[in-house]
Design brief:
It is a single chain. Helix content is about 15%, strand content about 40%. The protein has one domain: Double-stranded beta-helix, CATH 3.60.160. It has a six-stranded antiparallel β-sheet. With about 260 residues, it is of the alpha+beta class. The radius of gyration is 22 Å and the shape is globular.
Length: about 260
């Protein structure tokens, strides 16, 4: 194997974290900001890109890391190594409520494609790159699904998803239509495209967006019930106008504002 062989355990229900067990000299790479805790003896190192290709040269590292900017990620990642003789643990947490999904790349022919913000961490040696759409329609209307990340190698990787997750096995020619933000990821055999919803009433009054993703088998698809964009949109929509956060529009809340003098007459 070119990737480090790691053991892991996932804890929690709604707000999960994954604990990675590292043997001596084993390592794991993670996105900045996902670190939770680690045992004594773990060495932390900031690296350019994912560090999976040591012989690609400085220019290659620049180009590889530069592509990560298009996915909204940092140029740098963090690597954690076990420098001691015994086993040591390091843990990474989900950024919002949902599930952590372990992806064994050996089961998916060495490649898995996921949403640009889904990657959490992976065994050292797994390549974290960018999967560009080859169709103009996806680029113009795909939204979150236009630029995706690709995880390549023969090790373990971990992605996170919002809400409840579903795993769909699509047979050859079988089609699944999904909201673009609800896609976590899929295997390389899946044909991915964007379709117009159609119908004037659906377009004007549907409230579900003008486009959805069409996924055609064969392959495996992972779906999430609560993409972060939808969660953030609901939070922003619920904020009271004018920055007043008390009461949330309730009668008791309005009464409280009267008592504390916030309302002026």
């Amino acid at each position: 194997m070119t990737s480090h062989e790691i053991d892991y355990r996932i804890y929690g229900e709604e707000m999960q974290y994954v604990e990675i067990e590292l043997d001596p000299q084993e390592g794991v790479v993670a996105e900045s900001g996902s670190f939770m805790m680690m045992d004594d003896g773990i060495k932390m190192e900031t690296i350019f890109g994912d560090g999976s290709k040591k012989d690609e040269g400085f220019l290659g590292k620049i180009l590889g890391a530069g592509k990560r900017i298009l996915t909204g990620e940092s140029l740098f990642m963090t690597a954690f190594y076990n420098d001691l003789n015994g086993k040591r643990n390091v843990s990474f947490a989900s950024p919002y409520p949902g599930k952590i999904i372990p992806i064994d790349l050996t089961e998916f022919n060495g490649k898995f494609i996921c949403q640009k913000d889904a990657f959490l961490c992976a065994a050292k040696g797994v390549s974290i790159g960018v999967e560009f759409s080859k169709k103009l329609g996806r680029g113009l209307f795909g939204g979150e699904g236009f630029i995706m990340q690709k995880l390549e190698g023969d090790g373990m990787a971990f992605v996170h998803a919002g809400g409840t997750t579903a795993k769909k096995e699509l047979k050859s020619g079988e089609t699944l239509r999904v909201d673009t933000g609800c896609i976590i990821g899929f295997t390389q055999g899946i044909n991915y495209d964007i379709e117009f919803v159609g119908g004037i009433k659906n377009t004007v009054f549907g409230g579900e967006g003008l486009f959805f993703a069409k996924l055609q088998g064969p392959g495996t698809v992972y779906i999430q019930s609560l993409p972060f964009s939808r969660l953030a949109g609901r939070v922003l929509a619920s904020l009271p106008k004018g920055g007043n956060s008390k009461g949330e529009g309730s009668i008791l809340g309005g009464l409280g504002n009267l008592l504390d003098g916030d309302n002026k007459f």
